[in-house]
Amino acid sequence: MKPNDQRAPVPRRKDDDHTREAAAERREFIEARSGARLTHVGAYSFDPAVTRGNIENFIGAAQVPIGLAGPLRIRGEHIRDEDVYVPLATAEGTLIASYNRGMRILTEAGGVTTTIVERYMQRAPVFHFDSARGARDFARWVDANLDPIRAAAEATSSVAKLSHIERYAVGPMLHLRFNFETGDAAGQNMSGKAADAACRWIADNHPGGARYTLSGAMDTDKKHSQLNVLHSRGARVVAEARLPSELLKARVGVEAEALFRARLNSFAGSVMAGSANNGMHAANALAALFIATGQDAANVAESHAAMTYVRLEEGGAAYYWSITLPALIVATFGGGTGLPTQGECLDILGCRGKGKVGRFIEICAATVLAGEVSLAGAVVAGDWVDSHERLGRNR
């Protein structure tokens, strides 16, 4: 597009901007300026009215291919010995095939055991004082007034519950990291609103007042941090399985001992690289699941962090394999989960609506482990590149 002396704003309708007519007007606007033809962008099946609260300046939909992998047997606390089929939205060839293979291996080995350790969402305001002693004394005051602070925060929501507050002192500042339980919602906005109310109460009631910034960056919203690895953000969940060496040999062509040796090598490489994940590719499963089910895709930045732990058992005849996700941020209610396509994918999983987030967390973790098993096997067996050549080259 050529520069224009006058700014040409995107067309908007003040009365009702989420209509087919408004979307068509915007497509015509950008087609005239870019030369693009938006035939497929404009070919969507839902009423634009359902996107109110999810998007502004709506023009259409991105149609990402969705594939189905499974069955995957999960033995968790919200899913008890059940075979699950998993929709994955991706444009990467071989991804569905690889996850499908990993799911078959895990299911034939008896399934994946999943454990949700804890789940919190944070907002982390920073309070400013004239000296370090002022910050230290303030921390003591917060401890003494935790009950009314909690009451102020929880008054903003019927769902949010303040679990605990972490404290981090830096010079004349004190960072407070509020940890909230947020029900079936991911909870970033919920936590922000609750923390804001708590800070206002603190400012009104602390002797001499209190100066603060609502986010001091220790909530690490949409970015990875070591703090998340240690203290959790979203769900901390573990998926684990025991795989017979004979099964691994039959399905991926390598025995448990070879996989274990390879893990020692890749662990050293991960440490040297300073990786946020010493496993294979958790982001692949999570991105595909997030897009299919209406999650905030940017949360993959935090959610993909993981710690793999393995060991040989039964004299090398079995391979214990676990992966821990310390910052899995997902929802089954609110946000994009209510959109039509995404809701249908949640229905496939039995995860749409309230009371289902634990089930969805377990499915996410188990799916990640399936991808780890398949890709690790492909790399060690030497058929990783060949698989992409056969299945993943869209020329």
TrEMBL record:
<feature type="compositionally biased region" description="Basic and acidic residues">
    <location>
        <begin position="12"/>
        <end position="21"/>
    </location>
</feature>
<protein>
    <recommendedName>
        <fullName>hydroxymethylglutaryl-CoA reductase (NADPH)</fullName>
        <ecNumber>1.1.1.34</ecNumber>
    </recommendedName>
</protein>
<dbReference type="InterPro" id="IPR004554">
    <property type="entry name" value="HMG_CoA_Rdtase_eu_arc"/>
</dbReference>
<dbReference type="InterPro" id="IPR023074">
    <property type="entry name" value="HMG_CoA_Rdtase_cat_sf"/>
</dbReference>
<dbReference type="GO" id="GO:0004420">
    <property type="term" value="F:hydroxymethylglutaryl-CoA reductase (NADPH) activity"/>
</dbReference>
<dbReference type="InterPro" id="IPR002202">
    <property type="entry name" value="HMG_CoA_Rdtase"/>
</dbReference>
<keyword id="KW-0560">Oxidoreductase</keyword>
<dbReference type="InterPro" id="IPR009029">
    <property type="entry name" value="HMG_CoA_Rdtase_sub-bd_dom_sf"/>
</dbReference>
<dbReference type="GO" id="GO:0008299">
    <property type="term" value="P:isoprenoid biosynthetic process"/>
</dbReference>
<dbReference type="InterPro" id="IPR009023">
    <property type="entry name" value="HMG_CoA_Rdtase_NAD(P)-bd_sf"/>
</dbReference>
<dbReference type="GO" id="GO:0015936">
    <property type="term" value="P:coenzyme A metabolic process"/>
</dbReference>
<feature type="region of interest" description="Disordered">
    <location>
        <begin position="1"/>
        <end position="21"/>
    </location>
</feature>
<comment type="similarity">
    <text>Belongs to the HMG-CoA reductase family.</text>
</comment>
<dbReference type="Pfam" id="PF00368">
    <property type="entry name" value="HMG-CoA_red"/>
</dbReference>
<keyword id="KW-0521">NADP</keyword>
